[in-house]
Amino acid sequence: MRAVASVLHLDLDAFFAAVEQRDKPSLRGKPVVVGGVGGRGVVATASYEARQFGVRSAMTTREARSRCPHAAFLTGRFHAYRETSEQVMGLLRSVSPLIEPLSLDEAFVDLAAADREAHPLLGDLTVADVTAFGTHLRERVVEVTGGLTASVGIATSKFVAKVASDLRKPDGLVVVPPGSERDLLRPMSASVIPGVGPATAERLRRVGVHTVEELETLSEDELVRLLGKASGHWLHALARAQDDRPVVAEREAKSVSVEGTYDHDLTDRDLMERLLTRQAGDVAQRLRRSGLSGRTVTIKVRLHDFTTLNRSTTLSSPTDAAATIARLARALLADLDTSGGVRLLGVGVSGLADWVQEDLFGEPEEEQDELPEVEVPHHSRRSWSPGMDVVHVEMGRGWVWGSGRGVVTVRFETAQTPAGPVRSYAEDDPQLSPWRPPTPDDE
């Protein structure tokens, strides 16, 4: 741990749902659920208005609808989330060169590495100084994102800072004074420690451990015998708030992956296999350019209802062979039910190494210098997902309220307008089309 509270953890509140509420004025202050909207869908994020009804991330959409039937259930708009995330990460990088993003909506910041002259509120990093800075930072997040809020924790370590950011959500700030870390943690459930999932929590429960304070009573040897060497050492240290992990700006790559999202759901299994084969070739090329290889091949499949499936298989030795990666990816796909349609496919390789062991008994590697083009056919029937951005020739920008039976209903509004009117059109109306943000090529 550090002598001063100089590690900051920022977590954007109900991120996906908050972006939707920002961009859709009619949904502000109302329950919003983002994720899969079909019967097999899963909740990605719920607004705080929806959480009051018991809706939570990772809950099935079916259960979420039963708990909060009047919520707006929307599919994701990743371009909007990515753009907003970049705004926040840019703000954090203006504070310190040591920024460690964990996802689109959270990151660690090393305040000790910040330019104190450019940020005089940091002062000598006293509790009063970092509290004033944390308050200012939260105000700046609201400004750069157009209204989103963030919860911030500041402490002497990454572990305690992350715990602190959860304590006063939403839009909260908690600074943990040096020396008070263990007093903060002791009453908490042992599951607050990263790595204590349901299985580990059950093992701890069987020996009478429910809280961090009770976890402290176990010696390191006891925890190693109970949970294994790595987990035992980890829990023994964090239960005593001992965490010296640095904030790392550029983390070493742990995997190499390629994925694609498709405008229309894929149903042709042969086409999916060809797409995976091409992606495997792209991954192999990236591995070779970096002088890397990997043992674990993973495919990512997002179904029509937003359910995301990941399947992996591990080789006995690392490879950078496109044919091997493709063969394993296709085999993993064969075990999945994709009859309802697939909106995203991806291939990744992890367990990276800087060497390759020749596969003396495997199939010969195919030449992959020029990967074959794979054309994704266009569907004659348009797909209108709830929440997606659209534009109408006469009415302008809006978003899909709902669709079915040949009709699509649109509410015309944006983040810069008041709540707008609702209109319905035929699904194949030529004046209505999906809206996509401009790219540099468009300029």
Can you walk me through this structure?
The protein has 443 residues and is of the alpha+beta class. The protein folds into four domains: 1-177, Reverse transcriptase/Diguanylate cyclase domain (Alpha-Beta Plaits), CATH 3.30.70; 186-238, DNA polymerase, domain 1 (Orthogonal Bundle), CATH 1.10.150; 255-353, DNA polymerase, Y-family, little finger domain (Dna Ligase, domain 1, 2-Layer Sandwich), CATH 3.30.1490; 389-442. Helices cover 30% and strands 25% of the residues. The chain is built from 13 helices and 17 strands. The protein has helices spanning 15-23, 48-51, 61-67, 78-93, 127-145, 158-165, 181-185, 198-206, 212-216, 220-227, 229-238, 269-289, 322-334, and strands at residues 7-12, 32-35, 43-46, 72-74, 99-103, 106-110, 150-155, 173-175, 255-266, 293-303, 308-319, 342-353, 389-392, 396-404, 407-411, 422-426, 432-434. The chain has a five-stranded mixed β-sheet with strand order 5-6-1-7-8. A five-stranded antiparallel β-sheet has the order 16-15-14-13-17, with no helix packed on it. Strands 9-12-10-11 form a four-stranded antiparallel β-sheet, covered by helices on one side. Helix 4 (78-93) runs antiparallel to helix 5 and helix 10 (220-227) crosses helix 11. Mean pLDDT is 89; it is low at 357-370.
